[in-house]
Amino acid sequence: MELFLGANIWEMMHGGSTHLPIALMLMSAVFDALGGVTRSDRVKDRFHAAGLFTLIAGTLGAFPAVLSGLILARWEIGGTGALFWHHVFLWPAFASLIALSVWRLIVRGRRSRTGFLIYLLAAFAAAFLVSAAGFWGGEVLLGGS
Amino acid sequence: MKRSVFGLEFIAGVLGIVVAAAVVGSTLGSATLVRTAIEKARAESAANGNQPQLSLIAAHGQKLYAVNCSHCHADDATGDEGPDLHGLTKSDERIKVIITNGIKGEMPAFGKKLQEADKEALVGFLRSLR
Asked: What domain range is A23 assigned to?
């Protein structure tokens, strides 16, 4: 029981797993943006494939990050101070990752230009949300006060 | 053709939102249920007069706490002049750094007074606070 309540192991797990979705979501948005501005169809397809796989990997990586974080925070989904702000960004970020993954997996290459532009805006918004959640998570664990 | 692509994108978007809402909603719901169950069990345990047993290290930390910290953080660590110390989310290392260096203008430094083992005992005691 102590394993599930003691902070150490979950702190390490959360610290280790949480960087995966942050980095992958950021890179997914960048890859897709590069795919959007590249002229060569072959390179364009490769960038979009990289964007899809980094998005899926980031979304899958978010699950252990969220679980270890919940255990670390003793199942608190709101909280106060830095923990509150961490959660304010975290839950929309988690939802965005899932929604974007579902959209990409269903639509695949059959997307319109307008649809892709909306997707790209949402992807960058998700990257911002994940990064902000990461920033406030750092404040929770390492902040001075 | 363009119309059907837009239709597919729209359906995919709606499905994405539904799946995301379901996953996040069930995560938040489950966490709330677990938290409520834990708090209920603790409240029942406290009502029955059961005090959680402390490890030897945490018991040593409890004594150190009473001498060094309770003046500001209250005897039961629920906070007085200093903050409530229950459910700290900072890392063990971070807590030890704060104990060692203090917080400018807010908390004195205990680096010279407490040995490394004492700080670990204090952290052990703080982690035992539920």
From this structure: 2-139
CB within 8 Å: B5 and A103: no
Element (H, E) at A87: helix A81-107
The answer to whether residue A144 sits within a structural domain is no
In this model, does residue A25 exceed pLDDT 80?
yes
**Interior CA angle at A23 toward A19 and A24, to 5°?**
115
Q: How many domains does the structure of chain A reveal? A: 1
What ipTM score was computed for the predicted complex, to two decimals? 0.85
Between CA B10 and CA A12 the distance in angstroms is 40
DSSP state of B129: -
Inform me whether the pLDDT recorded for A7 exceeds 60: no
- Chain A contacts of B58, Cβ < 8 Å? none
CB-based contact A11 B91, cutoff 8 Å: yes
Q: Mean pLDDT score of chain B, rounded to an integer?
A: 85
Mention every residue, 6+ apart, whose C-beta is less than 8 A from residue B59.
Answer: B125
Question: Does A145 reside within a domain?
Answer: no
Q: B91 and A141: CB-CB below 8 Å?
A: yes
Say yes or no to pLDDT of B51 above 70.
no
Q: With bands split at pLDDT 50, 70 and 90, how would you rate the model's confidence at B103?
A: confident
* Residue A109 belongs to a domain: yes
- To test the contact with chain A by mutation, choose from B23, B35, B38, B89 the residue with the greatest count of A C-beta atoms within 10 A, namely B89
* Residue from A3, A5, A66, A74 to probe the interface with B (highest B Cβ count within 10 Å): A74
In a domain, A44, yes or no: yes
Look up residue B56 and give its two tokens: 């030897």
